[in-house]
Amino acid sequence: MDLHTTIGLTAAICTTFSFLPQAIKVIKTKNTKGLSLEMYSIFTFGILLWIAYGILGSDVPIIIANVVTLIFAIVILFMKIKYK
Amino acid sequence: MDLHTTIGLTAAICTTFSFLPQAIKVIKTKNTKGLSLEMYSIFTFGILLWIAYGILGSDVPIIIANVVTLIFAIVILFMKIKYK
């Protein structure tokens, strides 16, 4: 694997899994006051579009990365709506 | 512009600018308790790698989208560190 691909994959892993500690934190503390409902609404919609983009282009890495991100984003959005 | 490109561009605009309301909220309220420091640290590092990926591949849309996201991410991370 060349440097370009390695950097891209590491970037995708970082930006995807960065939402995991936020999801864990919001589940543990139920403190959602500082979280922006607008952010997670627009972000979740954007991730759904990324998945559609991946499906249309048969781009498996884009589909997988965004499905994982979608799970974290939906958890955070759900908690924000439930405990706002 | 075909449907595939239109969906991809809309997706990029949504996931990039979704961080704007979060940045505005944290500047206004200074309430960062619910925000995960781990998330914004890993996320900011990931965005820097996306910019490196874009530069190595001479991919201007990836560079632009991630430079914009980086600005929002750094603002949120700075506020989280300052007001934790």
Structure description:
Chain A is an all-alpha fold. Chain A has a single domain (3-82), classed as Monooxygenase (Up-down Bundle). The first copy, chain A, has four helices and no strands. Chain A starts with a helix and ends with a helix. The mean pLDDT of chain A is 96. Chain A binds chain B through residues 3-4, 7-8, 10-15, 17-22, 24-26, 29, 31-36, 38-40, 42-43, 45-47, 49-50, 52-53, 56-57, and chain B through 3-4, 7-8, 10-15, 17-22, 24-26, 29, 31-36, 38-43, 45-47, 49-50, 52-53, 56-57.
SSE topology:
The structure is a homodimer of 84-residue chains.
Chain A: H1 3-17, H2 19-29, H3 37-56, H4 60-82
Helix pairs in contact in A: 1-4, 2-4, 3-4
Briefly, what is this?
The structure is a homodimer of 84-residue chains. Chain A is mainly α. Chain A has helices at residues 3-17, 19-29, 37-56, 60-82.
Shape of chain A: globular
Mean of residue pLDDT of chain A? 96
User: Roughly what fraction of the amino acids of chain A lie in strands?
Assistant: under 5%
Major beta sheet summary of chain A: none
Order of helices and strands of chain A: HHHH
Q: Which CATH class of chain A applies here?
A: Mainly Alpha
Q: What is the subunit arrangement here? A: homodimer
The gyration radius over C-alpha positions of chain A equals 14 Å
Helix tally of chain A equals 4
Using brief descriptors, characterize the structure shown.
Monooxygenase, homodimer, 84 residues, mainly alpha, 0% strand
